[in-house]
Design brief:
By secondary structure, the protein is α/β, with parallel strands linked by helices. Helix content is 39%, strand content 18%. It is built from 4 helices and 5 strands. Helix 1 packs across helix 4.
Length: 140
C-alpha cells in the first residue's frame, strides 16, 4: 500500500476559466495557470503521488520550472471533469494507493498544511476518496 495519492483534472490554460470571459485571453491564461500551479504545489507536497489528467502541452515544462513532481496523464477522451478525475483515481488505486484526494485545479489558497490537517482528520476513513473543492476545503 502506498498511502495517499491526489488527482487533478486540468483543462488547457487557453480554454480554462471561461467564466472570466471579460478578461483578455492572455491574462485569463496566466491567472488560470498560476492558480493551478499553486494548487498542484500544495497537493504534491502533501501527498505521496500527484496525478494530473489533461491535455495541456505546456504543463510539463511549467511543472518542471516550479519544481512540482507530478505524473501527467492525457485525458483519454474529453468526457468532462468527473471522467478525468475517475481516470486518475483508477491509476492511483491500481498502484495500491489506499486514499485519493480529488481536487479542482483552482484552489490558489490551498496549502500543504491545510491538506495535511485534512488527511489527519479523515484518517479513519480508509479507502475513501476525498473531493477538495472551494466549498469543502478547510479554511486557510
Amino acid at each position: 500500500m502506498n498511502g495517499v495519492g491526489s488527482v487533478v483534472a486540468l483543462k488547457p490554460a487557453g480554454i480554462s476559466k471561461s467564466r472570466l470571459g471579460a478578461l483578455p485571453v492572455p491574462l485569463r491564461r496566466r491567472l488560470s495557470r498560476s492558480m493551478a500551479l499553486d494548487t498542484l504545489a500544495a497537493l504534491a507536497a502533501a501527498t505521496d503521488q500527484l496525478v494530473v489528467v489533461g491535455g495541456d502541452p505546456e504543463l510539463s515544462v511549467q511543472l518542471h520550472r516550479a519544481g512540482i513532481a507530478a505524473r501527467l496523464v492525457p485525458e483519454p477522451e474529453p468526457a468532462g471533469m468527473n471522467a478525468a478525475l475517475a481516470t486518475g483515481d483508477r491509476l492511483l488505486r491500481e498502484q495500491r494507493f489506499t486514499r485519493v484526494l480529488a481536487a479542482v485545479g483552482d484552489l490558489p489558497a490551498l496549502t500543504a498544511a491545510v491538506l495535511e490537517d485534512l488527511l489527519v482528520r479523515t484518517a479513519e476513513l480508509p479507502g475513501a476518496s476525498s473531493p477538495i473543492t472551494p466549498a469543502t476545503a478547510p479554511p486557510c
